[in-house]
Write a structure and sequence with these properties.
heterodimer, A: 103 residues, mainly alpha, Helix Hairpins, 3 helices, elongated, B: 226 residues, Four Helix Bundle (Hemerythrin (Met), subunit A), 9 helices, 62% helix
Chain lengths: 103, 226
């Protein structure tokens, strides 16, 4: 019998990627690196959606992935704008230095 | 065959993700993240979702990562130094929570593995499904899910406006300007109150008058200017 990947394999991969993303957000201090870790977490969730969608023959999951990608693009635009504004005010990208919510 | 492909691309994705965390130069992190995105796109192809795979490469590995790399280059990010260890008790706490998380995740995965509703892998069945193809996704997007689609377009518009507002320069004046002659009275005080301090703004009608007010009448460069 040929070995085919089970649904649980994809869920395990997604869990591992999401955990790596969470670890990155906690460990990293650079804003841009934290931002990329958030993108990694979004991708891990997308993998879960696509796996369920393919295994259960339902297109809704892939539509949801499409919308998640759009939100990620919007988040990238606004988030990088915020990063540029922070850098302009503080000359630093270290989140530990951006600890007061004023200019 | 599909199992070999899955293990190959899953290993590549996890390896690139770990490398992204370990790298301290943000540019190398970004390149590792592109590796994650592309291996995930390959996994989507093995899951019979070619449209999502293409969008993954175009939107994530293309547009978003170009934006991130552009910002990294623009800000000239330095490598982050290794942080000093501050709270000792965090390590056992982290290990405890990691064990808890691993237990929960393995329980969920075990439940899925042994559930009675086992589905065949999409590539294994005799008649391939239409689910991942562009036509079925378009049909779903413009009929049943039209409202989320429109809301998403509104969200994109808000993101465009927000990004432009955030990244716009707050001040239009060069650092040494104190008085702008003529009708375009736009003092630094109005655009950037921090830079002026307690100095007050002066309105004049011409450059000559502004120079007289500022005491720059005899400055060497004053006569060269028109």
């Amino acid at each position: 019998m040929e070995l085919t990947p089970q649904l649980s394999w994809y869920l395990a991969l997604s869990a591992v990627l999401f955990t790596i993303g969470v670890v990155g957000v906690i460990v990293k201090r650079n804003v841009i690196a934290m931002f990329m870790c958030i993108e990694l977490m979004l991708n891990a969730v997308n993998l879960t959606f696509v796996a369920f969608s393919s295994y259960f023959r339902d297109v809704s999951g892939q539509l949801f992935v499409f919308i998640v990608m759009t939100v990620a693009a919007a988040e990238a635009a606004v988030g990088l704008g915020i990063i540029i504004a922070i850098f302009r005010n503080r000359e630093s990208l270290d989140v530990d230095e951006a600890n007061i919510l004023r200019l | 065959m599909s199992a070999i492909l899955f293990i190959l691309f899953a290993g590549l994705a996890i390896g690139c993700a770990v490398s992204m965390i370990v790298q301290r130069n943000p540019l190398y992190s970004a390149i590792s993240l592109i590796g994650v995105f592309i291996s995930l796109a390959c996994i989507y192809v093995t899951l019979a979702a070619p449209f999502i795979a293409a969008v993954q490469v175009i939107v994530y590995a293309g547009a978003i990562m170009v934006l991130v790399v552009f910002v990294i280059m623009l800000l000239n990010v330095e490598e982050e130094e290794r942080p000093a260890f501050r709270l000792r008790y965090l390590v056992p706490t982290a290990i405890l929570f990691a064990a808890l998380l691993a237990a929960e995740a393995s329980f969920v995965i075990f439940t899925v593995q042994t559930s009675p509703y086992q589905q065949a892998h999409p590539s294994a069945s005799a008649n391939p499904s239409e689910v991942g193809l562009t036509a079925s996704i378009g049909r779903g997007l413009f009929t049943q899910y039209l409202l989320p689609f429109e809301i998403t377009s509104l969200l994109l518009l808000m993101a465009i406006v927000g990004a432009m507002t955030l990244a716009r320069r707050a001040s239009f004046l060069s650092p040494n300007v104190r008085v702008v002659p003529g009708a375009q009275v736009l003092t630094r005080q109005t655009v950037d109150p921090r830079a002026v301090g307690d100095a007050t703004a002066i309105e004049t009608d011409s450059t000559i008058e502004a120079e007289r007010l500022l005491g720059l009448e005899n400055a060497p460069h004053a006569k060269d200017r028109d």
